[in-house]
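Notebook p. 47: complex prediction with adenosine-5'-diphosphate.
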Amino acid sequence: MININNICMHYGPTMALDHVTFSVQKGEILGLLGPNGAGKSTLMKILTTFIYPSKGKASIDGFDILEQAQQVREVVGYLPENVPLYMDMRVDEYLTFVGNARGLNTVAIKKRFDWLKEACGIAPVWKHGIHELSKGYRQRVGLAQALIHDPKVLILDEPTTGLDPMQIIGIRHLVKELSKEKTIVFSTHILQEVEVLADRIVIINEGKIISQGTKQELAEEAMKHRCHVLTVKESKDNVQKALSGLLHAKNISFLDESKDGFVTYEIESAFGDTSAEEEIDRLNKDRNWRIRRFAERNFNLEDMFISLLSKQ
Ligand code: ADP
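Predicted complex, structure tokens below:
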């Protein structure tokens, strides 16, 4: 349904996207995961033909984003990061306006209204002024405008940002429901969000894709790593220096320094390789460190995300 091929985007000297390539299958929910400034919004703006890329090609439902921008806009519903609402309109007026702008006639708009009220849960605020709505309802009205023309593809930029936990659950539920008949791409900087919602995950940082796969594939990848937590009474500098000399550690991250002078580090190594553990053991003995904790724990998706970002 969506093909993205070597997309690059320069804003002056900033390379916001660097040869991004991936595709999204029909009916899939794809989660675009990355920290702030990774390039997620830029990619979404390009897919929705809001801006044009500096280089590369992309198509949605077979329509080229550069050559057939109008057709692309017809098949896509877009919820930008800042929801485009007119505060001085009522919800029904605003959605009528968007429906008209989308080229729907009055009969078609009325038909969609019945569905939208129910699907987006906006019936209770239907005649309310948009300025009086809570953030959660504003987000729902934003989703309704993205859905008014019954698009095949939904592109949602950080759809749950700024919502409270109940509102987040509500939006997640809605997105899951919508995925029964639509292809959905959503962005987030929150790992749990993709874990709950996405069928497939693309991890992006500094404009580059650093990993992608199904949750299962990424979890299996994570299981190829092991992780040790070490808490010792010593200065951070000394521990950092000593650990950076480990030959079998793949990644070392500082976690915490307590008031009573203990520092905590995490040491990542390859699964099945006990050499790092033996090295740390030796180090502990050589330095005569006072150990509060030295333990192995499971490496999960979150560890992998952090590890990938810090490696890059
Ligand atoms: P994300 O959505 O992942 O937070 P963005 O796509 O908004 O990331 O931004 C990617 C990079 O491009 C950042 O370094 C950001 O500062 C830069 N950027 C985004 N929009 C513009 C713009 N209009 N002009 C200049 N730089 C921009």
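Notes: The domain at 2-213 is CATH 3.40.50.300 (Rossmann fold). The radius of gyration is 24 Å.
Next step: compare against the earlier run before touching the bench.
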